[in-house]
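Researcher: Here's the sequence for the chain we discussed earlier.
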Amino acid sequence: MTDFAHEMLREIYEQPTALRRTLSTYLTPEGLKEDVAQSLTGWSNAEGEVLIAASGSSRHSGLAAEIALEDLCGLAVDVEYASEYSCRGGSERRHPSVVVLSQSGETSDTLASLREARRRGHKTLAITNATHSTMAQEADVSMPLAAGVEKAVPATKSFTCQLAVLYLLALYEGARLQQIDASALATHIAHLQALPASIEAQLDGWREQTAALARKYKSAASFLYLGRGIHYAIAREGALKLKEASYVHAEGYPAGELKHGPNALVSDRVPLVVLATVDRALDASVVRYEKTLQLLQDMKTQGAKVIAIANAGDSEVAGLVTDCMYVQPVLEHLLPIPEVIPLQLFSYFMALEHGVDVDRPRNLSKAVVEKTTVA
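Model: Thanks. This is the structure I predict for it:
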């Protein structure tokens, strides 16, 4: 389908093309680009520590990167709100390499974080969608996206391209640190390169299903989005998309934290959205999945309304929830890219159900920059 009433929908559909462009920036048919590997050598430090500073959707991609960098590279990663890191002050005994994430490359809090990191003598890496942005120019190393211009305020294609570049960063670092051998690296790259076509094939089905779900759930007062491990980042992002696009309240939680308070909110008017995908080749992913199945069983007994995102053909999840959306299976650390797209579409159609100008939500702008006072 090619009819796009809004830029947000157009940009959701542009994600396969945006991902292909971004991947071609960093990959050759043979694998990782040598010039990129050389530039990253100057960014990494010997301590094996990384600090990621970002805001909004970019921070959520950072949360996913934290898991990928730790699991695939053995690095120690912290993710900070840029608005907090930039003004924390004090002395720092640690010396992490610092990654700043920003779609525009001009976000004021994130730019302040970059400058604070440089003041402290840290090596810095900027990942932005603007090659000539201030952050890209001021950081020691720049890894630009190739998402193309994003006109809608809610981030969609820039977010999935951020996830892809952060995954590539993990591959480059994993190879450099000899944490990923040649065979595993080839597997990761093959799955990554196959992803755009897989997403392309699934978009129309997701569009049709999320439009129907938005009609069904439009009267909900709030949603709780749940995910474990790397999928917690996508729960946070799905909730943010719903809030900013449709003005419907939502919160993202680690799935295991539901019974530590938030479950008191669950009712007919507060449904759950649960990320229940799995990489069956990875033991830790299977453990996470089985714990999620138990939670879904408990929620079914409780009578909760649940929308789940699961692997294509997963009848076990489907039998435990009210509604189920499917994504084609892929490696654990790549699953966030396809599974966020149905959540983007759901927020889009919820916005339409609520009569919101989805491209220009109230009180929001594409880039949060420092205001200047005119005398």
